[in-house]
Amino acid sequence: MDYLLSLLESVIGDPQLARLLFVAAIGLSAVLAVVTLGLLVTGLQNPVQRRLSVLKRSAHQGGHVAPSGLQLMLEQVGGRFGNPDEAAGSSTRTLLMHAGYRQPAAVQAYWAARLLLSLGMLGAVVVAFPFIKGISVVQAMLLVGVAVGFGWLAPAIYVDKRKQARMNSLRAAFPDALDLLVVCVESGLALPQSIDRVAEEMAVSHSELAEELALVNAEIRAGIPSTEALRHLADRTGLEDVNGLVSLLAQSIRFGTSIADTLRIYAEEFRDRRTQAAEEQAAKLGTKLIFPLIFCLWPSFFLIAIGPAIIGVLKAFGGL
């Protein structure tokens, strides 16, 4: 406390005014902290609020899922950022959906996590100030800014990395699912039964894609048209390959053409695109190897090849 007070006095220049502002800030912070914790605890312990949360989640997820205290707290804090219904089509909702977070309160929990982590990092830095010797006001402000920025950006980076990993996993599993779908359709199964069978077969090797296909089959059984259910699949995954498949299947269903022929043609085109992508990556390999060669291999090579000659020259000139 004394260290923070000395920093404030050095900035303001008036010791009495600095102490008055310091006491006022501590009192306001204590009041706000008590009120916030009281509201959160009251909301978490209120059986009516918990029951409403359970009913709301069960309406979206098809079962009574009891939310944890942390989930309720994040949803209550994040709910201050906006209405969940208004954020249904937002870019944050799309980002979280591509990352695998499809819960109704995912957007609120995401923003609440960013806010609480930023405040937690700020509190940790303020507590650590007395243990840091010789730090100036500018350095302290810079450290606070870095800590708050890290707390604000860390959840976004984590969600983006999770999105990329999930999309790569779905992209790698899509060719196998497409081949199995072609076999099932050509054997006489309808499209919903084929999707269900492929989801069962891929539940162990590619669980994420199997879950998405199972959701498509559940929507079809619930009465949603096949084309709309497949478009929902494309929206949830965000893959261009799935968008192309959905467009072809929608046209095939609309005009009454053979789904097996459509799937076979798309499978051949997808194999060609996969081969072209592999050839493109192979062509880029030579360019990507330039930097490791320059900074890692060539210095070692020149050291081994020219090093003895340089040592001999230095010895020869040193003996003159």
UniProtKB/TrEMBL annotation:
Bilayer-crossing regions: 20-41, 111-132, 138-159, 289-314
Localization: Cell membrane
Domain Type II secretion system protein GspF residue range list: 178-305
Lineage: superkingdom: Bacteria
Main location: membrane
Protein keywords: Cell membrane, Membrane, Transmembrane, Transmembrane helix
Membrane topology classification: Multi-pass membrane protein
GO cellular component: plasma membrane
UniProt-listed PANTHER family: INTEGRAL MEMBRANE PROTEIN-RELATED (PTHR35007), PILUS ASSEMBLE PROTEIN (PTHR35007:SF2)
Protein name: Tight adherence protein C
Lineage: Bacteria, Pseudomonadati, Pseudomonadota, Gammaproteobacteria, Pseudomonadales
